[in-house]
Specification:
The protein has 290 residues and is mainly beta. It contains 2 helices and 18 strands. The radius of gyration is 21 Å and the shape is globular.
Amino acid sequence: MASSTKNVKLGVCQLFFDGVDMGYTQGGVEVSVSTDTYKVEIDQFGKTPINEYIQGRQVTVKAPLAETTLRNLVATMPGSTLVTDGVQASATLTFAGQPANNANVTVAGQVFTFTSGTPDAITKVKIGASAAATAQNLVDAINLFGPSIAAAIPTGGVYASLNAGGNVVTVKAGDPGVLGNALTLVGVANVTASSATLVGGVAETKARVDVTTGVGIDMLQIAKTLRLHPKSRAADDLSDDFIVHRTATPGALQFAYKVDAERVYNTEFMAYPDPVSNKLFSVGDPQAGL
């Protein structure tokens, strides 16, 4: 490949944890990848290694979150619970079977198109080997683009999750409130929407977070996907994204109640290998190769 000055990159990123935009940072996001090796030595070559074996690899992402919201605290502090009178609007898409090629569903005004071919856009959803696989692909697409959908931005974006049975996709507004009740949801044959819009959103008037010691929490059990998206790229351009497939943070705070100091959630995410694919992280478009 020919050299190009376009390959020299600068700039800040957006940080998405479990599909939710974590907001502004203070001081930059730092990614560290280290590899431990074992060097093979024998007497005849003294201290000169004759071979080397990889023993393991560690990936950490340090992100000082400047938006010290209660929901960011819950997301990054294992053992914490949000107590609130607010409710996020939500609705479901139930898969009774596979959608047809080129069929559309609409989430918060954004059309997502199912395709049996290669997805060529962030809003294209690969039809998988089963309805459950297709449902998971839809969840992934919504979580990739949901925080950036224009209609959903005032509600904190939208994100999705899949039930244990693999056939029901729950779509939620990112923030509680009645604005989420206006976000549209349109199904298609074999993918039924529970209502024409998200429902049940209630404005929040009081909230707090209760934090426990967290002793004994299984970090792998609570691990989620972390995605770093360069701000210089359009929301639907994932060509330079850095994705940690399974990660969690033990939680940390640094508060300074001073006129010239920000309160910061100092988060350090540790990557764990996916038990099926063995992947630690990926760089580039997650839809490549689908």
